[in-house]
Amino acid sequence: MGETQNPLEVLSLEALRRRQSLKWRAFGDEVLPLWVAEMDTPLAAPVAQALNRAIELGDAGYPSAGPYIEAFRNFAARRWEWEPGAEQIRPVRDVMTGVIEALRLAGELWDTVIVSSPVYPPFFNYPVTAGRRVVEAPLGAEGRLDFEMLEESFNLRTAGGQASYLLANPHNPTGTVHTRQELEQLARLAADYGVRVISDEIHAPLVYAETDFTPYLTVDPRGYAVTSASKGWSLAAFKAGLLIAGEEVASELADLPPEASLGASHIGVLAQTAAFAEGEPWLDALLQGLDANRMLLTELLAEHAPQVSYSVPQGTYFGWLDFSEFGYDDAPNGGAERPIQGPAKHLLQEAKVALTGGHAFGTGGEQHARLNFATSQAILTEAVQRIGAVLVPAAGSGPDRLSSG
After folding, report:
1. Which helix (H) or strand (E) element contains residue 255?
2. In 3D, which of 312, 330, 326, 338 has the Cα closest to residue 393?
3. Based on the domain organization, do 118 and 94 belong to the same domain?
4. Could you tell me the pLDDT band of residue 331, with boundaries at 50, 70 and 90?
5. What's the pTM value of the predicted model, to 2 decimals?
6. Which residues form the Aminotransferase class I/classII large domain (predicted)?
C-alpha cells in the first residue's frame, strides 16, 4: 500500500476474519470486535520489509538493541523535540514488563502504587504480582487528573512508606492527553511527597493535531517512562519495549537485572526499529484516518444512540462510552479480561458487538464500555447501528447527553 493511503481502509472484513489474533478469534464470526487494542491495518511497508529481510536471511538470533534505541531517540526528537540520552534507555520485553522493572528500581516490596482510575486494567494486577499494593486516586471532572485527590493519596500513602504513581500518558481509556502544565504540577507534587512517577507512554504516537504530547521525563528528571512502537504501528505480536530513566536517576539502571534487557525479541526489535526509523509517513496517514473515525463516531452516536455520552478523545483510538442512561447491571460475571459485564455484556449478546467492559478499568468505569475505533468506517458504522438498535433507555432517564467536547 502507498504510505499516504489510509491504512484503516485497506483490509476487508473478510480478510480481517482470516486473522488468528485474539481480537478476531475470541468471539464468533457474527461478532464485530471493537474491544482489545489491535488495529485493523496491514503492516507499514518498512516494518514488513524488515521482517521479510529477517526471514530471507534466517535472522532469528538474539536481539541487538542499539539501533532500536537510536531509532526511538531520533523519532522522539523529530516528533516531540525530546532526545533522551542513550545511557537513559534500556530494552525490555514490553511496556508492562518495563513498568514492573521501574517499580522495582524506584521502590521496595510492599510499596503502594497509586493509579488514577478508570485506567488500563493491567495497572491493577501487574503491580500486585510484583508484590505491591494498588490504591486508586480517581480522575476528576472531564476525565482529567484530580490534584486534590492525588495530594491526599500521596500524603496518606507516603506516611507509612514509599509510594509510586503509575501514569497513563495519554490516558487509557479516556483518550485524555495531559498538558505540560498538568504534568509539571504532578511532578512538583510527587517531589513534595517523595513519590516516584512511572509514565506509560505507549500511546504517545497516537495524539491528534490539535493537542501537544509532553513526554513526562521532560518535566521530571527523577521519573521513569516506558514506551514502544506497539500501539502506534499495531505490533503487539513483536515483543519489544523501552524503559527510560530520568536524567537524575539513570544510574539506577545499573541495578536492572540482565534478564530484563534480554526479554525483548530480536524480531520485535527489528520491527519496532523500522517503525520508529521509517514509519512516520504510515503513522501520519493512520492519524488522519483515526481523526476521521473519532469524528464519525460522534455523528453515528448522535444518530443511532444519542443517550450514550462520549467525549472525543485527544489521543489513542478509544471511545470511552457512558451508558448510564440505560441502567445496566455491572455485577461481576466472568473474568476481568473479558468484556462481558454491564453494557458490554448486553451489547455482545444482543448486538453482536464486542466492547471492553468498563468495570475492568476500576472506579469510574461503571456503566461504561471502551470502543476501539481503529477500524474501517464501514465496520464502525455497522457496529454503532447494531448498538443503537438494541439500546433501551431506563425508565426516567434524562435528556440526550452526547458531548463532542
Report:
1. none
2. 326
3. yes
4. low
5. 0.93
6. 108-387
CA dist 16 and 305 (Å) reads 26
Mind listing the pLDDT tens digit for each residue in 368-377? 999 999 999 9
Last residue of a domain, one of 233, 261, 278: 278
What does the alpha-carbon distance between residue 188 and residue 219 come to, in Å, rounded to a whole number?
A: 9
Q: How many CA atoms lie within 13 A of 118 on its CB side?
A: 24
Q: Does any domain span residue 399? A: no
Domain range spanning residue 368? Answer: 7-43+281-390
> Residue 43 is placed in which grid cell?
503492516
Share of the chain above pLDDT 90, in %: 87
24 part of a folded domain: yes
CATH number of the domain encompassing residue 93: 3.40.640.10
Q: Does 223 share its domain with 269? A: yes
Question: Rounded distance, CA 89 to CA 97, Å?
Answer: 14
Cα Dmax for the chain: 66
- Confidence grade of residue 398 (pLDDT, cut at 50, 70, 90): very low
Q: Which residues contact 16 (CB under 8 A, 6 or more apart)?
A: 24, 40
Strands 368-372 and 318-322: antiparallel
Do residue 84 and residue 36 come from a single domain? no
Calculate the CA 165 to chain-centre distance: 17
What CATH number should be reported for the domain holding residue 377? Answer: 3.90.1150.10
What is the number of other CB atoms lying within 10 angstroms of the CB of residue 21? 14
Domains held by the chain: number = 2
Same domain, 126 and 15: no
Looking at this protein, which amino acid is placed at residue 190? A
**129 phi/psi in degrees, rounded to 5:** -65, -20
DSSP state of 250: G
Q: Judge if 32 and 84 occupy the same domain.
A: no
Domain endpoint, select from 278, 305, 326: 278
Confidence check: pLDDT of 399 > 80:
no
Q: At what angle do helices 66-80 and 280-304 cross, to 10 degrees?
A: 60
Question: Does some domain include residue 52?
Answer: no
CA-CA distance, 1 to 13, in Å (whole number)? 17
Q: Has residue 187 been placed in a domain?
A: yes
Measure the CA angle with vertex 154, ends 148 and 159; round to 5°. 130
Contacts of 387 (CB under 8 A, 6+ apart): 304, 305, 308, 347, 351, 353
Look at 69 and 159; give whichever has higher pLDDT: 69
Q: List, in sequence order, every residue forming a beta bridge with 321; answer none if it has no partner.
A: 310, 369
